[in-house]
Q: What sequence folds into this?
């Protein structure tokens, strides 16, 4: 399993993509096609979206032994769970996106939530 994760992290698709993300219509999405977001209030390597925030904006959780490379990293959330990050920014789903390709969270909360354009 670790070798597969490490090999996936070496992929050149999407500029260092891993087994968790891909690019669809110029936007980063999870492998299930659901749009991924970043939150302006997060700092590099630190998520401040916890509790009710994380219910509305579920973090992209990964196993503790996940290996990624390039622009991807794994951060530790306040609850101890591991979250995937891109260029230091933790990644999230938006609970109101109903189907792959939806981007209804872009610009939400005074433009604090953003899709990742690739």
A:
């Amino acid at each position: 399993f670790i070798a597969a994760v490490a090999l996936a992290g070496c992929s050149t698709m999407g500029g260092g993509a891993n087994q968790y993300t891909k690019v669809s219509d110029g936007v980063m999405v999870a492998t299930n096609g659901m749009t991924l977001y970043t939150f302006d209030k997060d700092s590099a390597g630190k998520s401040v979206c916890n509790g009710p925030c994380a219910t509305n904006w579920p973090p992209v959780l990964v196993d503790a032994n996940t290996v990624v490379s390039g622009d991807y990293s794994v951060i530790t959330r306040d609850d101890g769970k591991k979250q995937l990050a891109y260029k230091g920014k933790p990644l999230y789903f938006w609970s109101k996106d109903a189907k792959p390709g939806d981007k209804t969270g872009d610009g939400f909360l005074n433009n604090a939530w953003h899709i990742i354009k690739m």
User: Anything to note?
Assistant: The mean pLDDT is 87. Strands lie at 21-24, 27-30, 37-39, 61-62, 72-76, 82-86, 89-90, 113-115.
